[in-house]
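Annotated sample (chain length 297).
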Amino acid sequence: MPLDELLRGIWQRRWAVALAAVLVFGLGAGLIVSWPRHYVAQAMVAPAETSGVATSTLMSPSPLLQGGLLDNRPSGNFGIYLDALRAPEAAAMLARETGLLAYLSDLRGAGAMGALRRHLGWRIEADLDDAESWLAQRFAATQGIATTTVTLTLEHRDRAAALDMLRRLHAMAETRVRAGLLGQARQRMAAIEARLATEPDQFQRSALYELLAAQQRIALVLGADEAVAARIVSAPMVGIRPSLPNRPLLLVLLAVAAPLASLLAAACLVLLRGPARARPVQYEMALGPRRLGAGAD
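Output written by the structure step:
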């Protein structure tokens, strides 16, 4: 179909296109306005190894011989910290210390889906699997583009609960890294001390004393350093108003998409029905002079 005929067909249906655009925009705007909003708690952290004297460097026997006191690698203890934030133990901690399970149970029992679950006898009470799925969907750790900082975000419908859960997640991950390192150091010290109690060779005892001093240095650093895995750059905070979803942006996008969708539907309709209507008109125009000539005879 030529472009001018396509445009002419769309123009003939302009009022239907405008009505369809208004209906689509109204329906979408209703869904956007009625969609539940969430508060977003946010904190910015950096690897403790990059913001001061590196903990892992202080733990080493010869810190100055291994490249100085600073370490710019965003891995090590910080990688364990990030994994601990998403671990099943984190979801279990939130379920145990906060009202996450009750909150999820209320969500599962609300609305039409809740009525359907009760009618079919499905489970409504949330469990640890639901808590783990919720944490995977609502928590995010975003790496900075040009820096080693990571932004932690947690979404929740309640403002205080979002802030409290993010603080608990950070404290749990930091404590887990510290406890793992300290437990390893104490286990090694116990093994070295047991070996010293039975070792008669003086040269072996000297080497064991050096190993014991290294493990004692690790325990001392862990007890004195405030941050072992992640150092807080920006303390956890949450906005006064809910920020998800972004209603103004979604309404603007819908105001652009609704007319375009209506125009596309009208163009498809013209392409489907236009040729079928154009053939009889062309046939009558071709037969017009013959009919006029027959009438004149």
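Annotation: DSSP finds eleven helices and four strands in the chain.
Annotation: Residues 187 and 215 are 9 Å apart (CA to CA).
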